Amino acid sequence: MRLLTLALTLALPASAAAQPKAERVESKGGVVVCVSPPAADIGLAALKRGGNAVDAAVSVGFAMAVTWPEAGNVGGGGFMMVAPPGKEVRCIEYRETAPLAAKVDLFADGTVTPLDHRAAGVPGTVRGLAHAHKTYGTLPWKDVVLPAVKLAEDGFAVNAVLAAGLNRVLADPKTTNAEFKRVYGKPDGTRWAAGDVLVLKDLGRTLRLVAEKGPDAFYTGELADLVEKEMTAGGGLITAKDLAAYRANDRKPVHTTYRGYDVYGPPPPSSGGTALAEMLNVLENFDLKAAGRWSPGANHLVVEAMKRAYADRARHLGDPAFTTVPDHLVTKEYAKKLAGGIDPKKATPAATLAPEIALDKESDSTTHFSVVDKDGMAVSNTYTLENSYGNRVVVRGAGYILNNEMTDFNPRPGFTSTTGLIGTKPNRIAPFKRPLSSMTPTIVLKDGNPFLVTGSPGGRTIINTVLCVVVNVVDFKMSVEDAVSAPRMHHQWLPDVIRFEGVKEHPELVKRLKAIGHEVTEARQGDAHTIWVDPKTGVRVGAADKRLDGKAVGE
Ligand code: DON
Asked: What pTM value is reported for the model?
């Protein structure tokens, strides 16, 4: 392929780093990296008991439902990528589903808020983790669930990040659900501080039922009845029948190659794998490395690739059971055409990229974890409640927080705004449909072996966080901890503005981007717990992102 050389190469002065340095761990054996230290330890313990990467990942998934209530969950959903050594990479998709009673205009008039019972989709996490375990796990099911039961029943010490998060959500006047306040409030009514112990009895009982009776216990019988009761009392939509009907899907990932690496990401109903592949395919037409990591040339191209992929996301992507996603989005030919349309000296106005879409005027939390075991099995998992603490409703008696994933559907049919609200058809609400996600748990292989395992929270910024980590490692040969720490950039087509973590560190870059027509604002981005495997030595290097308080552990 012909490499286009960049017109805008410029060496910029190095400046002080503003992002926290990622924590590095190295091991020849297994490595686990996630946001919650006690959950990382539980993943490592599963590996040490002889479990594989999926056993560890399932243990971490259940543990974080206890120790990271912002986003760890059994009441939400997500995507787990699994690369077993020598076998096909798969995506276990356990995205929430719209209940039967959901209507296309649920959010159209703005009366249903993200904290409404109606914002919850049917949870997928327990089915997803169970599917992963049944397909790949080697430890008994109970062994991977019970550590979470113990954490919930006996309690665990909250750290400063969790204490701050809990204090914030409890102090917010919008948090009105009495059960949420009872369960997550400090029993003496004071503010949480690091070292305080959080006990979650009802959640412990729910998890114990799941551990002892299997995943059906979550979707049928007593626990399903508790959800239906909660929904009846709170005016929600989910019924016991909706829960009984829920299935996780085992899907073929989106695959592309990038400069000799094989990149695998989640397929629809996530937009992540498709948009990531589209952006990488576009960028492969340029020599980013020659331009330099913080050059206006390289960053302009990255942003132009982002805009085009996000315009296609709005145009085409949704649940594949309801909408046809065109194959051309991830082809090299299409990417070449897109690359040819980029003016190297001028920002393309975003609205011109999808002229057929009429435009009107007008937080955190998800969590990602990565595991590679001693035999080279890799797991990349991102799951979420959508907003921090979901819809802030705890199912009475069952003790778990519900998601507000229904807000990931396009809220107002036909209404796409320059501020970023999307109303296109592929992602409108329908019964049993899954909302479009941006979650992008990613596995990069080199010659069939794991090379990079990454992902992030951050809503629509997720795909671009992953893109930044991948180009940092592949194009710019950064160490994995530098790749994770480096300031990130985001453009999502609309609003037509770049968000950049490095505004203070790279003022000259910002100036040059503005000079060619980009608008730039400052924003923090993502939490990318990543593992890199040295292709020469096989050593696994975990990098825990410290934008929150991640932990990397190794055997
Ligand atoms: O699936 C999605 O793309 C969103 N529900 C993810 C939400 C998220 O990442 C929130 N914050 N960090």
From this structure: 0.96
